[in-house]
Amino acid sequence: MNDVYIEDSKSRHSEWKYASNALNQFPATLLPATLSVFLFFYYEAVLGLNAWYIFLALTIWTVYDAVNDPFIGFLVDRNTKLTRRFGRRFPWIVIGIAPWCLSLYLIFSAPDVDGSTNPWPIFCWLLISLILFDTFGTLVSVNLGVLRPDLFRTEEERRLLSKYFMPIDMVAVALGLLIPPLFLGAGAGREGFAFMGAMVAFIALIAAILFLPGAREDKVMIDRYFTAEYERMKFFNGVKEVVKQKSWLVHFIFVVAWIASTDLMIGNSVYLVIFVLRASPDEVTLVFAVFLLGALISIPFWIKLLKKMKNNKKVVVIGGFASSAAMVPMTFFQTMIQLLIILFILGFCCGSLWAFIYTIINSNVQDDYAVRTKKNQKAILVGASVFFRRLAATLDELIIAIVHTLTGFKAGYYTYEELAGAVADIELVLWGIRLLAGVIPAIILFIGTLVFWKYYPLTQEEVLKNKKKLEELGF
């Protein structure tokens, strides 16, 4: 096997290409992070929409997403009149990226209706704005998801991408977690959330413009799209091949667990700050700042460990178990100092997964798909994979709805004093919030990591074999 080529070959891309490509993490992380942190709180506590209505909207969204994502992946995975000049992926990314960024504002500018007495206008607004957000986001994410593995072929190139991806992704998460609370200030009313949505959308759009040069396909890639070996796969055959792939199924379970656990923990942070710590919403910034500091400091450690071990699966497994263990104390802290220490350790552990899942593991799974099917049509697999976040979001809202119902949380109250006066047992409500912040996400991530450790088939030897086969196939 030509291991020298796979591990040590020089990249044809400039450093700026890697950096620009990684800049997509600003909109890709900033927008979902804002939703993860504030969507449930905004619609439940501010607008008064019952948690089960939110869960219903997200369930319908997930069903739409389950069909929309692979179908868009299938539709865009073909050559057009623009392909020879602009590439197969780049035109679709240009079409989708601005509306995707701007649709975030719609989500946080719901009509002035009391959701507790008249839920359906708010429910419909939430559902329609989420569908728009998903459709344009899918155009970007599906095409970029295929673009990256094709653009950065070798393990060395993918590690170089991780060098830029990881810190940029962390900064993007920082913006998504730190900046929105500052736009809210000390209040959390309708106007504050609408202003926050507009400002986050604007920041994401600026970053999206800087990302576009890194999304351009070069002649080497474009020529691959016109190889004689390329034969278009039918939609249902493509879906069938995705479902049959063991590496994808195991990866699917693990990523759903990772996203569900972290989004649940992050989304519950506003409840934790306002109701458990009885602090202002803008203090969420301090909580997330410490968490992200731990993650940023961890970057050199995890990259060095990956280079030393040269085993993608083993590093991810270590990071998954460490992260799940670090989540547990989030339920039992007593003081702000204790919480900040726990968050720093948790951030350090989560840094192991943030970049490697998407830049390396996901790319290895795509390579495995191309080798198995012997077709360079991977957008349908990426479309199915985009379903990860939607499914995870639905699982989160289901868990939150169940816990809030069992503990007696009441919608329409966004201060501690108001909530305490409206519920029968405020201590039970607070324990529900604590469990959602720590023990429950820890269990989810532990199970996902255990499945990945036991059943993920792509050892490092298999990864290198697949790269050799891709060369032979001309992909």
The number of strands is 0
- State the helical fraction: over 70%
Oligomer: single chain
What is the CA-based Rg, rounded? 22 Å
| SSE-based structural type | mainly alpha
Secondary-structure element series: HHHHHHHHHHHHHHHHHHHHHH
CATH topology: Growth Hormone, Chain: A
In total, the number of domains comes to 1
Number of helices: 22
CATH level 4 superfamily: MFS general substrate transporter like domains
Distance between the ends:
17 Å
- CATH level-1 class: Mainly Alpha
Q: What best-fitting shape do the alpha-carbon axes yield? A: globular
Given as residue ranges, the uncertain stretches (5+ residues, pLDDT < 50) are: 1-8
- Mean pLDDT score: 81
Beta-strand residue fraction: under 5%
**CATH architectural label:** Up-down Bundle
Mind summarizing the main beta sheet? none
Please describe what this structure looks like.
The protein is mostly helical and 475 residues long. The N terminus is likely disordered. It has 22 helices and no strands. The protein starts with a helix and ends with a helix. It is 79% helix and 0% strand.
In short:
With 475 residues, the chain is mostly helical. It has helices at 3-8, 15-22, 25-46, 51-76, 83-86, 90-107, 119-151, 155-184, 190-211, 219-225, 235-244, 246-267, 269-276, 284-309, 312-327, 336-354, 356-373, 379-407, 416-422, 426-437, 439-455, 460-473.
What descriptors fit this protein?
mainly alpha, 79% helix, Growth Hormone, Chain: A, globular
Layout: helices, strands, pairs:
Elements: H1 3-8, H2 15-22, H3 25-46, H4 51-76, H5 83-86, H6 90-107, H7 119-151, H8 155-184, H9 190-211, H10 219-225, H11 235-244, H12 246-267, H13 269-276, H14 284-309, H15 312-327, H16 336-354, H17 356-373, H18 379-407, H19 416-422, H20 426-437, H21 439-455, H22 460-473
